[in-house]
Amino acid sequence: MDIDRPSDPQVSVVSSDGTMFHTTLKSILLSGTIKDMIEHIGEGGVENMGAIPLQNVDSKTLEIVIKWIEHHKDNIQPTSEEIKDKTADFIDPWDENFLEMDLDKLYNLITAANYLNIPQLLWLSTRKIAMLIKNRTPQEIRSLFNIEDDWTPQEIEAVQKENQWCEEK
Amino acid sequence: MDKPTLLDLPTNIIEEIMSYLSYEEIANSRIVCRRFNKINQQILNRGFFNTSKGVKKLMLKIKLTESALDKLNYFLAFVPLALYHTNFDSLYKFHIQNGTICFYPGKLLDAFNRYIRYLMAAEETGIENYAESESLTKLFNLTILGLKHFQYEILPDLYKKKELKNKEEKILELEKLCEIKDAQIKNLSKQNEKLREYIKKNKRGKQESKVITIRL
């Protein structure tokens, strides 16, 4: 009966390592990937739909993603174009706090946001990394992100020479 | 298990990350590693072509609104764009399209993009005095630094590299020629041998036939 039907039905998702998570339709629709899928089967099929398997997201990451989408389920999500236009805009303190995690988790979150197509979350998490790169020397960037210096001395000299163009002599 | 690093992320995501940085920062972080360099070079080149498009558009627009500006203002606003158009657009473009360099002066892209935005805004709110605009002086200085460095530091190296490449190519060509000649010589000597064998056989045949006739 329609009267008994909750306005925001429950949906289950399963992580790559087999853990099941319960969330609501409204939250999960923030994922473009899942939205496309649900549109394909039709809203009516949601209640009879089994748990959605997410092969590319592990349970730790999925837990973080679900925390984010449940917090933002009632907010109007900006389109990708709107996200691109604003560069250094205001960031919700809740989000700022939410993104305080170690880099491994952040990489996984970025990969998941990309796979699940959640533009706002992808924007927030990639921007977070960009802010870490900002105002750091190449050596600091290497040690922060655990990147190996794979240049030969001649090659690095060539790049350095190019970058010296605006140093006053 | 190896810990994931930033470099494990796909290229389009790294490009996304870089898009929050200024071109100057993108140019400076090329030094981090080869992958960064490769990705950032492409971003810089794309930025260069986009800025070129912006400059061309603006040059046309300024031409159209010429009457609304006093002559000095018109001249001053136009000069940096003309400088960019005649120098960077033709000088660098050739080498970028050849793949020998990328548009490494990222700070110039930032400055020109800021200038383009400034002119666009100035046109909407009314023309100010360009001569007094701080960004204009900065832009001139940067442009001159960029051009000087390119002409005296980068171009000679590019020519040297080109010469070396030409020499290497010539050596390769000669080596190939030698190989072809060697093969030809081998072929000829083989043919020679075959001929000799043929002659020998024929001689023997003649001798045998002679022998037979004598017996008869």
UniProtKB/TrEMBL annotation, chain A:
<comment type="similarity">
    <text>Belongs to the SKP1 family.</text>
</comment>
<dbReference type="Pfam" id="PF01466">
    <property type="entry name" value="Skp1"/>
</dbReference>
<feature type="domain" description="SKP1 component POZ">
    <location>
        <begin position="11"/>
        <end position="74"/>
    </location>
</feature>
<dbReference type="InterPro" id="IPR016072">
    <property type="entry name" value="Skp1_comp_dimer"/>
</dbReference>
<dbReference type="InterPro" id="IPR036296">
    <property type="entry name" value="SKP1-like_dim_sf"/>
</dbReference>
<feature type="domain" description="SKP1 component dimerisation">
    <location>
        <begin position="120"/>
        <end position="166"/>
    </location>
</feature>
<dbReference type="Pfam" id="PF03931">
    <property type="entry name" value="Skp1_POZ"/>
</dbReference>
<protein>
    <recommendedName>
        <fullName>Skp1-related protein</fullName>
    </recommendedName>
</protein>
<dbReference type="GO" id="GO:0006511">
    <property type="term" value="P:ubiquitin-dependent protein catabolic process"/>
</dbReference>
<dbReference type="InterPro" id="IPR001232">
    <property type="entry name" value="SKP1-like"/>
</dbReference>
<keyword id="KW-0833">Ubl conjugation pathway</keyword>
<dbReference type="InterPro" id="IPR011333">
    <property type="entry name" value="SKP1/BTB/POZ_sf"/>
</dbReference>
<dbReference type="InterPro" id="IPR016897">
    <property type="entry name" value="SKP1"/>
</dbReference>
<dbReference type="InterPro" id="IPR016073">
    <property type="entry name" value="Skp1_comp_POZ"/>
</dbReference>
<comment type="pathway">
    <text>Protein modification; protein ubiquitination.</text>
</comment>
Automatic annotation (TrEMBL), chain B:
<dbReference type="InterPro" id="IPR039719">
    <property type="entry name" value="FBXO28"/>
</dbReference>
<protein>
    <recommendedName>
        <fullName>F-box domain-containing protein</fullName>
    </recommendedName>
</protein>
<dbReference type="GO" id="GO:0000209">
    <property type="term" value="P:protein polyubiquitination"/>
</dbReference>
<dbReference type="InterPro" id="IPR001810">
    <property type="entry name" value="F-box_dom"/>
</dbReference>
<feature type="domain" description="F-box">
    <location>
        <begin position="3"/>
        <end position="51"/>
    </location>
</feature>
<keyword id="KW-0175">Coiled coil</keyword>
<feature type="coiled-coil region">
    <location>
        <begin position="164"/>
        <end position="208"/>
    </location>
</feature>
<dbReference type="Pfam" id="PF00646">
    <property type="entry name" value="F-box"/>
</dbReference>
<dbReference type="InterPro" id="IPR036047">
    <property type="entry name" value="F-box-like_dom_sf"/>
</dbReference>
